[in-house]
Amino acid sequence: MPELGGDHAHTRHEAEIAELTRALRNYGVLTRDYLEELSGARRWSGATFDAALYDGIRAGRIKPLGGDLYEAAVQPER
Fold first, then answer.
1. What's the whole-model pTM score?
2. Which of 23, 28, 33, 57 could form a disulfide with 39 if both were Cys (CB 3.0 to 4.6 A apart)?
3. What is the pLDDT of residues 31-59, one digit of tens each?
4. How would DSSP label each residue in 16-73?
5. Whole-angstrom Cα distance, residue 32 to residue 22?
6. Which residues pair with residue 48 across a beta bridge?
7. Distances (CA, A) of 58 to 3, 53, 55
8. Which residues lie closer than 8 Å to 3 by C-beta, 6 or more apart?
9. Residue 17 in contact with residue 61, Cβ under 8 Å?
């Protein structure tokens, strides 16, 4: 879910990407399964976790480390 007072997600999909990114920022490097658990993605309907993970990587918000590991990508200062 989007945080109040910050950049708001405009769609459910954007909110899901934000949840994945937030979990990675809070917990550091995570396996795919642990990321799914800590982000709450196991409660999402359908295959939205895979789509959000893929799009988060494509957007440069999530960095794959190889194997089954991911971390939050460093975002440029605003």
1. 0.81
2. 23
3. 999 999 999 999 988 789 999 999 999 99
4. HHHHHHHHHHHH-SEEHHHHHHHHTGGGSSTTHHHHHHHHHHHTTSEEEEETTEEEEP
5. 14
6. none
7. 22, 9, 5
8. 18
9. yes
